[in-house]
Amino acid sequence: xxxxxxxxxxSNTRLSPDYNVxxxxxxxxVGTARPGQFVMVKTAAGLEPLxxxxxxxxxxxxxxxxxxxxxxxxxxxxxxxxxQLYDLEAGDRISVLGPLGRPFTLPAADADAWLVAxxxxxxxxxxxxxxxxxxxxxxxxxxxxxxxEDLYYADWFATRGVAVVYATEDxxxxxxxxxxxxxxxxxxxxxxxxxxxxxVCGPTPMMRxxxxxxxxxxxxxxxxxxxxxxxxxxxCYSCVVRVRExxxxxxxxxxxxxxxxxxxxxxxxxxxAH
Length: 274
Description:
This protein has 7 helices and 16 strands. Helix 4 (154-158) links the parallel strand 9 (140-145) and strand 10 (163-168). Helix 5 runs parallel beside helix 6 (204-216). It starts with a strand and ends in an 11-residue tail after the last strand. The protein is an alpha/beta fold. The mean pLDDT is 93. It has 2 domains: 3-100, Translation factors (Elongation Factor Tu (Ef-tu), domain 3), CATH 2.40.30.10; 112-271, Nucleotide-binding domain of ferredoxin-NADP reductase (FNR) module (Rossmann fold), CATH 3.40.50. The strands form 3 sheets. A 7-stranded antiparallel beta sheet has the order 4-3-7-1-2-6-5. A 7-stranded mixed beta sheet has the order 11-10-9-8-12-13-16, with helices on both faces.
């Protein structure tokens, strides 16, 4: 069950003028959090912004003895709420509700696991990578950004044993172009007989492109949608997406409770806002 806690800010690491990672003391949330879930954050007191903002749980923080301590949030400063999150200082307190949403599905122990991230879409993959590593798997992260300086936290994954494949739009690190460039090559070259599980998060056009690319190779993917949410509990219907399910005509579901994780093949991408 989700809980609403007044979380103390432990630290705020500003990665650039727009990106930061906020560490929050929230042990009550950590205990039941699963990879791919999110929290709803009230970024400041008062009425601006009026509603909470959704953020994927980035890292799980633990005490030296392994006991849950808190979470981190990867943030990109865009509007009022994300700017307030960027400006937080250690010792501040914000309201955090979670964990919420449908998590990623972890594959069998004999599977390959690929994580495909674009920009701030990296957010759900720290917890996912740790869960995969704990299960004895060696995940591969396909990480795309505009330029090398925007590949935040890449070393965090590499030092934990995740194989990282890069793509940058300006060619400053890894393949030149979108993250689908190295992903397409890897799919073309793959000869392994083991099952393959692909997780995706990033801009909507990127998630759609990865879904379609995987489909051409006879595979589905799990996407973590980044819809605007007002409550995170299914009450406001601000985050609906149209999906296809066997035996039913396309219909709307609330991504905060039916997702944010969906099979890419079920999404009606033409109707999803970019």
